[in-house]
Amino acid sequence: MKSTGIKKLYYSISEVSKITDLEQYVLRYWESEFEQLKPQKNRAGNRVYTNKDIQLILHIKQLLRDERYTIEGAKQVLHTWESTEENLQQDLFGGDTSAGKPADSGADIQTKKITDPKLRQDLFEVKTALEEILLKFS
Fold first, then answer.
1. What is the tens place of the pLDDT at every residue in 13-64?
2. What is the pLDDT of residues 63-75, one digit of tens each?
C-alpha cells in the first residue's frame, strides 16, 4: 500500500485509486461484485471509503492479481475470511463460543467474556492494527 502520509477517517475514490494503484472504474466494478465492499456515500452522493474498506480492496486485489483467483473464487475466500473474523469477534467479545464445536474438544482453556467496553475497543484496535500488518506482509 502506498503511504498517504496522514491517516484520515474517510477517503475519496480518487484517493483510494492512488493508494491501491487501481483505476476508479475497477473500484466501482468490484463494489458491484463483492457484497462486502459497500463504501458509504456523503451528502453529495460521492463514495467515501474507510481504512477498513481500503484493507478489503487490497485483500481483493491480492486475491485477484497476485494469487490469480477468479472473482467467484475470491468471493468464496472472502466469505470464509469473513466467517473466521465473526467467530473471532464472538470469542473475544462475548458470543456463544461453544457453537459448532464438538462436545469434547479436548481443550481445557476457559474463555472469559470481555464486558469492559474500553478493553473491548482496545482489543478491536489491536486486531485491526495486526490485520494491517498482515496485509503488508502477505
1. 999 999 999 999 999 999 999 999 999 999 999 999 999 999 999 999 999 9
2. 999 999 999 999 9
Check: CB of residue 114 under 8 Å from CB of residue 94: yes
Quote the strand ranges of 26-130, DSSP E. Answer: 40-41, 47-48
Taking phi first (over 0 means left), then psi (-120 to 50 degrees means alpha), and beta for anything else, what does residue 96 get?
Answer: beta
Burial readout 98-118 (b: 16 or more C-beta within 10 A, e: otherwise): eeeeeeeeeeeeeeeeeeeee
Q: Domains in the chain, start-ordered, CATH in brackets?
A: 13-96+113-137 (1.10.1660)
CA 17 to the chain's CA centroid: 18
